[in-house]
Amino acid sequence: MVRINTDECVSCGGCIDLCPTVAIRMVDDRVVIDPEKCTTCKICVQVCPLNAPRVLEEAG
Ligand code: SF4
Ligand code: SF4
After folding, report:
1. Which of 2, 40, 44, 53 has fewest C-beta within 10 Å?
2. Where does the pLDDT of residue 58 fall: very low under 50, low under 70, confident under 90, or very high at 90 and above?
3. Which atom from ligand 1 is nearest to the alpha carbon of 33?
4. What count of other Cβ atoms lies within 10 Å of the Cβ of residue 19?
5. CATH architecture label of 2-55
6. Pocket residues for ligand 1 (CB within 6 Å)?
7. Domain residue limits, the chain
């Protein structure tokens, strides 16, 4: 799965609409990824200008 490094994410929201499984949400001005929905497609990793999304493990 992928997790957002909250120290680096500036909550620009740029990744939210691009996630094909709608796994990314804004919660209290913080961007979070639902691990149940994330397929580790890495689109958010590629689009984030700040390298905030980090791949923790490949999708099984
Ligand atoms: S890796 Fe893909 S599925 Fe997972 S949160 Fe990012 S864009 Fe969504
Ligand atoms: S694109 Fe990057 S900085 Fe913007 S909300 Fe997504 S993870 Fe955060």
Report:
1. 40
2. confident
3. 5
4. 21
5. 2-Layer Sandwich (3.30)
6. 2, 19, 21, 23-24, 33, 38-44, 53
7. 2-55
Amino acid 46 reads Q
For tokens 């939210």, name the residue.
16
DSSP 14: T
Read off the pTM: 0.92
Q: For 5-30, what is each residue's pLDDT tens digit?
A: 999 999 999 999 999 999 999 999 99
Task: Categorize the per-residue pLDDT at 57 as very low, low, confident or very high, splitting at 50, 70 and 90.
Answer: confident
The closest ligand to the CA of 31 turns out to be 2
